[in-house]
Amino acid sequence: MKIQYSASFFKRLLAFSILFTAALPQLAQSEEIGSVDTKFKIIGANHKIVIEAFDDPEISNVTCYLSRAKTGGIKGSLGLAEDTADAAISCHQVGPIEVPDNIKAGKTDGETVFKQRTSLIFKKLQVNRFYDKKRNALVYLAYSDKVVEGSPKNALSAVPIMPWH
């Protein structure tokens, strides 16, 4: 039995895809600042530590720097390797900060502001933002998760919201 689809079906599917994508929260895009090699590989790229920067997509004038392990070798070069859960984060105020009301309300599980794949399918490095109302600070948590078994390894950075000079 062969199923045929009409042109209107594909138009509706495209419209739904565009609407669905627009409804997703916007996550920060990183830019690579630099890297250092940690292990020489004869074939393929070396293992390395990569340093990336990203700006908080909802709070202007907060920049986070993230360092993470990147697996080399043949699998790493082809994008098939699984990177370790090791990462560090440092976030800074780079101008005047105004926290929107929707963030001031606070979510106890934080809000994902950055996500990057660290294996072919199941593992991601994420950064969640929390608002500490009592101390007037933004807290950024970097961690790695995996569909079946996550890692407790994490890194934390806090940005006090201070008047800008």
From TrEMBL:
It holds the Pfam family CreA. Keywords: Signal. The keyword Signal applies. Residues 1-28 form the signal peptide. InterPro entries: Uncharacterised_CreA. PANTHER family: PROTEIN CREA, PTHR37952. This is Protein CreA. It comes from Rosenbergiella gaditana.
